Amino acid sequence: MLQLPAEDRVHSPRTGWSRAHWEAVADHWLGTLREYSSPRHALPVLPGRVTDSGVRREALETFGRSFLMAAPRIAGARGRDPLGLADWYAEGLDAGTDPDSPEAWPRGATGRRPLLGITNPIVEAANLAFGLHLTREWVWDRLDRPVQKRVAAWLLHHARTEVFNNNWQLFPSMAEAFLASVGEDTRGCTGPRNVARVESWHLGGGWFTDGPEHAVDHYNAFVIHPYLWAWHRMRGDLDPAASARYLERLSAFTDSYSRLFAPDGSALHFGRSLTYRTAVLAPFWAAEISGVSSLRPGATRRLASGVLANFTRHGVGVDGPLTIGWHGEHLPSSQAYSGFGSPYLAGIGFLGLALPAEHPVWADAEEPQPTDETDARTVLPQAGLIASATASDGIVRLVNHGSDHCGLPVGAGADPDDPHYAKFAYSSHTAPGTGASWEEGADGHVALIAPDGRSSRRGPLRGWFTEGPVAASAHVPQRDGKAWPGTSVVTASIVDGPFELRCHLVTGPADHALREGGHAVSGTGPDAGTETTAAWAASGGLVAGVVGVHGWDRAETLDYADGTAIGPRATVPILRAERSAASSVHVALHVLTRGEPDVTAWREAVSVEVDGTVVTAVWRSGATARVDLATFVPWDGHPG
Q1: CA distances from 354 to 177, 288, 504 (A)
Q2: How many CB atoms sit inside 10 A of residue 435's CB?
Q3: Which fold has domain 376-526+559-594+603-628?
Q4: What is the DSSP string of 7-22?
Q5: Angstrom distance (rounded) from CA 21 to CA 170
Q6: What's the rounded mean pLDDT across residues 357-373?
Q7: pLDDT higher than 60, residue 639
Q8: d(C-alpha 24, C-alpha 2), whole Å
């Protein structure tokens, strides 16, 4: 079991956590993993899921990703290495790159259904290069020259490959950058081109899309920022101006991204690969190491310690290896490529341990993070996202009108959308329905309901607009990868504190009903209630509600036994409406907060006037907004 030091509420009044707590968690997570070591450490096999790539690839992934955690632990200890981490990983590097070793790592695709031309070990080549860069003095420089040559050859093989046109562009680049930094051969590599390609996806304010598709998510923190940071540290001599520009973007990113974390350490449950968990922290540490963080050092430590403490409170890595999931194990919310070693990318979130104990991030007193004491609305206009954090209830909500991870156009076959991108709303304390509940997909969604009872999916976005408290988008309802003929939905969200006014202009056959879903509240048995046009669900003090303002007929709640990544059961408040015309307007008030359900107070939070397709909202806070759903989104309403 994880054993933590006593809390220090003098130096860290908000979390009680110090550097010693971070070291204890890292040592426990690494120690637990080493219990499953192969004889020479290169292929540790953990309990858990094995993907189609096979056990050997999963074991390589475990070694490579755990090195991301071991590397800053080694670097920060400055030669003091009581766990023998440097020697342990050095022996694994020796065995893994020796073609005659029974623990030799794969170079190409493995498993029952290998990827052709693009192979999973490329990812671990990048992770090993990242770790070797951090620990060069204590690992790489101490390897015998024949071992160095074998490691270099293994990395070079992957540095020369072509990969997916998303964050993967940085994986061969990372291997190349390390090889160049230690004077090894890099002929045939295209790292500068790959990095330029990723940097061309910059949206502004340090935010990037994950490739040319509409994908903005935590991959900004998992991969894009830490690997760009490491690239520029190793290859900054190629273009000093570009490196300086990157650091400006990293600084800007730490400002807005820091506002997406709840005071209790909960991160937004949004996007894919969420099993990486503490990897969300990597950019904050990178910015501290480079001296460009927008946060004061004590605020960085408060934010990071809050996140790590929150995950350990939920049992992550407390009594065994890291599992695939968010709090506990939850396979339905994971991707098919996630095997037993995948969660250890969490190690990149321990990058701060590379800083010495006397660095201000560890030595300064803890300071508030941006969402501790004040409300914060963070608008990412190029990404179509608005985050609303309220200090009174400690919740961060995300309105999503720009990220779908689908690309265009909709193809034949299975639906391309994903529950972690297709919803209108996400939060730090709820998670979307997955598994069986994703088939119905009620939460965070507006769906046309065909006469046969099947509900539409959101699918790829066809246009979006974001400004101030308003974000809007348009989509063509679809199912089974095919657009529903003659249908379209334009949606505008107006945000005010814990509230979202969600307005729809729906086009489609009059015999298609409509359903609107709020947040899924998870727990062992959520409470729920309804009024004529209002419904709510509550658990553990958290309450989600949806109130029909215009165009809704009735309310109800839906229960799902399979729950979400946050809890074993889930309840979703929903609204329903029959439609009698080909075009109709529907307005609903959504709320996610803490306390008792109070439908009367929710209704009094906003005054709404609907005139044709124009919706005007006057909030109790004094804020106002007006949108014309017919013209608000720059889109002509046709799927072609």
Answers
A1: 19, 11, 49
A2: 16
A3: Beta-galactosidase; Chain A, domain 5 (2.70.98)
A4: P-TTTSTTT---HHHH
A5: 31
A6: 97
A7: no
A8: 8
Q: Tell me, what's the pLDDT at 405?
A: 86
Compute CA distances 383 → 61, 72, 528, whole Å: 31, 32, 34
What residue has token string 């030669």?
79
Rounded Cα distance between 28 and 362, Å, is 20
Q: Please give the CATH topology (third level) of the domain spanning 19-363.
A: Glycosyltransferase (1.50.10)
pLDDT of 214 higher than 90: no
DSSP string, 527-584: EEEEETTEEEEEETTEEEEEEEEES--EEEEEEETT--SS-SEEEEEEEEE---SSEE
Q: What are phi and psi of 575, to 5 degrees?
A: -120, 150
How is the chain split into domains, by residue range?
A: 19-363, 376-526+559-594+603-628
pTM for the full predicted model: 0.96
Domains 19-363 and 376-526+559-594+603-628 share a fold: no
CA–CA dist 169, 421 (Å, integer): 22
Lowest mean pLDDT among 117-126, 136-145, 236-245: 117-126
DSSP 279-332: GGGHHHHHHHHHT--SS-HHHHHHHHHHHHHHHHHTTTTSSSS--SBSSSB-GG
Q: Give me the pLDDT at residue 109, please.
A: 53
Report the C-alpha gap between 521 and 543 in whole angstroms: 7
